[in-house]
Structure formats: C-alpha cells, structure tokens
Amino acid sequence: MDDQITDSPFRMLACERSHEEARQTVATNRMLVQSLVIINGGAATAVLAYLGAHNPSGPGKSAALLTIILYCLGVFIAIFAGLYIRRTTREWSSFWELKSYPDTAEREKTMEGHRRQAIQSKRWSAGLLVFSEGFFLVASLSLAMSLG
Fold first, then answer.
1. Dihedrals φ, ψ of 110, to 5°?
2. How many helices (H) and strands (E) does the chain have?
3. What is the rounded distance in angstroms from the CA atom of residue 25 to the CA atom of residue 90?
4. In the predicted model, is pLDDT for residue 40 greater than 80?
5. Which of 22, 53, 88, 132 could bridge to 78 as Cys pair (CB 3.0-4.6 Å)?
6. Distance of alpha carbon 106 from alpha carbon 124, whole angstroms
7. How far apart are CA 120 and CA 114, in angstroms?
8. pTM here?
C-alpha cells in the first residue's frame, strides 16, 4: 500500500489551509465584484432614467452617451475581474491540495505552476477591479461636466 496517503498533521493542515484560503478569497472578492457591478449598473440606469425624463440635446447628449458607455464598461470589467478571481481561487486550491501530498519532483513542478498562475490571475483581477472603479469615476466626472 505504497500509494496510500496517510493523514499526517501536515496534510491535514494543508487541506484546512486550502479550504480556508478559498473561502476567504471568494467571499471578499465576490463582495468587491458585486459592489462594482451594482454601482456601475445603478449609475447607468440612473443616467438612462434622467435622459428619458429630460431629453438633452447637443453636446449634453453625446456626453451622456459617453457616460453610459463608461458605466457599462465598468460593469463588464468587474465581471471579468470576477472570472479572474475565480481562477485565482481555483489555482490556490490546487496548490494547497498538491502541497498536502508526499514529496515528489513532479508535484513540486506542478505546484510552482499553480502558484505562478494564481499570482498572475490575482494581479489581473486587482488591475481589472481598479479599472472598473476608474471607469465609474471618469463616467461620474463626465456626467457632472455634462450637467453643468
């Protein structure tokens, strides 16, 4: 029974760490993504409602269109950030799961690959979240300038 894995304290710790890391990452980042989608989507809806009631013309109309586009871009970028957050969580889970198994050369190489992918995905998700926030700020500034 050489291929059977014992429940060593190290393996149990690695397994617990994997689950806890995944839970915390998913909960925090889901909240960030949902907040950005709601904020950008709500702002776009408010602008559409305002335009429906006031029917602007001239430069105000094109600025309002730009504002709606920027808010929508903020929504889509937040959704893509959520996808990268999901990938990050999956990579870290794989990393910690592999860490719980006995040492082998192949496992170390695979673990390093998962670790690098997780770090890269985390950087992408952080950048996308910042861009989503930036689109909200630029769109809000554009709206304020177009309303006078």
1. -65, -40
2. 3, 0
3. 10
4. yes
5. 132
6. 27
7. 10
8. 0.73
